[in-house]
User: Which sequence fits this backbone?
């Protein structure tokens, strides 16, 4: 089994009239290419199927992938909505994803969405979500200006650790609000990577992974810029009391507790990540259907020549985390 652990979907049910209008994406085309209209904006970075899972599975199979772990488009994780609006938006997607999992148990897994802007409620709802067959939840890097190491989120982290849920952290594409990132597609190529690094470092240095050693947290895009700042985090912890105020051990121990996908677009960087975190912490990902995804993720991993570790990355690690049968 070869598992793509980073593949987004817009379930058709989220486009229904029963969903609040400003949370209903419209799938279509622009200049002959796929496009999505959502909340007054036109998204043109979609390059392949975003909703029909039969088409998505067939395309994945053409690259050697036999199983997709689906996650919502991060813009449809409604953490900037009032909880009374966010809950039904999450519910529609979670129920649809659960039906997809039940209909294709050997080919599809999924993580859903919860209103984590109310961490206590999200934590209480997490066991019910897992009971539907979903394997965890997708979170944006920040919620209401708070990054995920904030004590505000401790009720959710406690629930995630207690249930064994997989938590997939994905940047929110324009979360940093830096003017220069509006140019040259930097909001995506650089901004996403920085946002993931910020929230992952915040989680690690706040001691969340030490406090909840059972947590299973997957970072998108190979952890973004996190690998590049690991030495600075280590140095700060060694020389600054505020950097060491919430974490007892060396930051590397916490950084190695994260799981990372393979979407780095650089063979040297990916090989270094595997060497640093260990092959048991790295999962295959494509970031389909976006232009910043990779077309041949399996070939990229095989090209590293990692020997037996290759099969862990291609599927073994995901099978373990998602509880997938090997038969």
Assistant:
């Amino acid at each position: 089994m070869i598992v793509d652990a980073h593949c987004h979907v817009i379930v058709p049910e989220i486009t229904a009239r029963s969903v609040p209008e400003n949370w209903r994406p419209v799938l279509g085309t622009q200049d002959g290419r796929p496009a999505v209209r959502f909340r007054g904006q036109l998204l043109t970075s979609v390059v392949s199927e975003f909703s029909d899972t039969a088409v998505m599975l067939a395309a994945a199979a053409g690259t050697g992938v036999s199983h997709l772990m689906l996650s919502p488009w991060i813009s449809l994780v409604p953490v900037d909505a009032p909880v009374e609006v966010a809950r039904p938006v999450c519910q529609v997607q979670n129920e649809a994803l659960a039906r997809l999992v039940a209909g294709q148990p050997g080919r599809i897994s999924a993580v859903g969405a919860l209103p984590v802007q109310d961490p206590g409620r999200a934590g209480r709802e997490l066991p019910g979500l897992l009971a539907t067959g979903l394997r965890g939840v997708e979170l944006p890097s920040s919620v209401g200006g708070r990054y995920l190491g904030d004590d505000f989120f401790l009720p959710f982290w406690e629930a995630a650790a207690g249930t064994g849920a997989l938590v997939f952290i994905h940047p929110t594409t324009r979360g940093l609000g830096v003017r220069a990132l509006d140019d040259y597609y930097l909001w995506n190529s650089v901004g996403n990577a920085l946002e993931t690094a910020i929230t992952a470092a915040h989680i690690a240095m706040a001691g969340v992974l030490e406090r909840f050693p059972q947590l299973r947290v997957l970072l998108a895009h190979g952890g973004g810029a996190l690998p590049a700042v690991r030495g600075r985090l280590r140095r700060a912890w060694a020389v600054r009391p505020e950097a060491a105020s919430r974490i007892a051990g060396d930051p590397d121990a916490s950084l190695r507790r994260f799981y990372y996908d393979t979407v780095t677009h650089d063979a040297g960087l990916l090989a270094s990540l595997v060497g640093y975190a260990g092959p048991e912490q790295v999962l295959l990902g494509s970031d389909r259907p976006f232009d910043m995804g990779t077309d041949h993720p399996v070939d990229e991993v095989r090209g590293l020549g990692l020997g037996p570790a290759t099969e862990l990355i291609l599927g073994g690690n995901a099978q373990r985390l998602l509880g997938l049968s090997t038969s």
In short: The chain has eleven helices and 13 strands. The chain has one domain: 3-9+52-322. Residues 3-9+52-322 form a domain with the TIM Barrel fold (CATH 3.20.20.140).
